[in-house]
Amino acid sequence: MKDHRLYLDIHAIQTLPPSNVNRDDSGSPKTAQYGGVQRARVSSQAWKRAIRRYFADHSGADLGVRTKRIIDYVAEQILALDASVGEEDAMNMAEDTLNKAGIKTDKKKRAAKALFFMGKKQAAELAKAALAGETDKKALQEILKEEPDIDIALFGRMVADDPTLNEDASAQVAHAISTHAVQTEFDYYTAMDDKSPEDQAGAGMLGTIEYNSETLYRYANVAVHELVRQLDSKEKAISALKLFVEAFSNSMPSGKINTFANDTLPQALMINIRGDRPVNLVSAYENPVRPHDGYVEKSVQRLFEELKKTEKFVEKPLLTLYLTQDEISEKPEGKAEDSLRDLLNDLDQLEDLM
How far apart are the C-alpha atoms of 213 and 184, rounded to whole Å? Predict the structure, then answer.
């Protein structure tokens, strides 16, 4: 990498029909106050989970596993390397090695005391170390810090019991919020009993589901220079960035999706490559968009206008790529793409900026 830092900003405008993709503890769609009004909100955790699931379903990349059943995971790798080791011995070896690496486990449950995010290569190397009888904590921890899989590099790992095992996230994902005010609504539903006698009228079950519909502003960024350092390869970093942008665009949190079938796509996607700092453009919607002929077109227009306004404070992006479903009158400086595939291909230009 050159001396300067490099950031990738990704912005999306996406409209959702009646849905409840991300619920609070009472089952209501999550909301937030912004600009003096209530907005629909989808938490960053919900969309990061959806992105990780997209990685698993649409890429051949090695991915990390986040689980408390980390002993089983390492034991499986031990058995894959040496089938002569019995299952119980493999479990004991895995637990002992994890403990020596500083990962605390519950002896009765045979599980880690907290979720642990481990890469596939890291698990395999730890299994090799267990079979070799490695006991040095520093050496074992080095295995858990080397060669992180792309999802660990992007989203990071926190280990409360031993911060030396932490992995800083190269990506940040914002909570998505609606560009306008929303009100939660209620769907009153009934379910009929197919075997109900003819002389017994009425439903077999009834209830309510809360939902809302909204046009969301979504934002994330990636510290490209940090991702290159973590993956130790420009080529791997660019491949990971392409997958991240594709997953950000095409993934969807699965909350109540069978009820509402809210599988939409963004109406606009914009990538800004910056050499100074990342910039979230949510300020475009502090004054909520008003309902007149829909929200999408105005939301996209405000996004592009806000990008121009930021040049009063920060440098122009080194590269801007954008994709819209509809023709927009005021376009940003940059390259208009015909498809997501074209946009992803143009991210190869990042190599010249690294």
Answer: 8
Please identify which residue in the block is written with the tokens 């009834």: 206
Nearest alpha-carbon partner for 89 in 100, 77, 75: 75
* pTM of the predicted protein model: 0.90
296 token code pair: 């999408």
Report the pLDDT value the prediction gives residue 190, as an integer from 0 to 100. 67
Q: Spell out the SS3 assignment of the chain.
A: CCCCCCEEEEEEEEEEEEECCCECCCCCECEEEECCEEEEEECHHHHHHHHHHHHHHHCCCCCCEEECCHHHHHHHHHHHHCCCCCHHHHHHHHHHHHHHCCCCEECCCCEECCCEEECHHHHHHHHHHHHHCCCCHHHHHHHHHCCCCHHHHHHCECCCCCHHHCECCCEEECCEEECCCCCCEEEEEEECCCCCCCCCCCCCEEEEEEEEEEEEEEEEEEEHHHHHHHHCCHHHHHHHHHHHHHHHHHCCCCCCHHHHCCCCCCCEEEEEEECCCCCCCHHHHCCCCCCCCCCHHHHHHHHHHHHHHHHHCCCCCCEEEEEECCCCCCCCCCEECCCHHHHHHHHHHHHHHC
Residue 56 tokens, joined: 């698993």
What are the per-10-residue average pLDDT scores of the chain (354 residues)? Answer: 82 97 92 96 96 92 89 94 92 93 89 90 93 92 91 91 89 98 86 74 75 96 96 94 97 94 96 97 97 91 96 96 88 93 96 90
Which CA distances in Å does 281 have to 122, 179, 270, 284, 309?
37, 11, 11, 6, 10
Q: Quick one: which of 294, 254, 271 has its CA closest to 349?
A: 271
**What whole-number distance in Å separates Cα of residue 7 and Cα of residue 278?**
6
Q: Which residue has the tokens 């170390």?
A: 129
pLDDT at 203: 67
Residue appearing with tokens 């996230």: 169
Both tokens of residue 273?
Answer: 């490559």
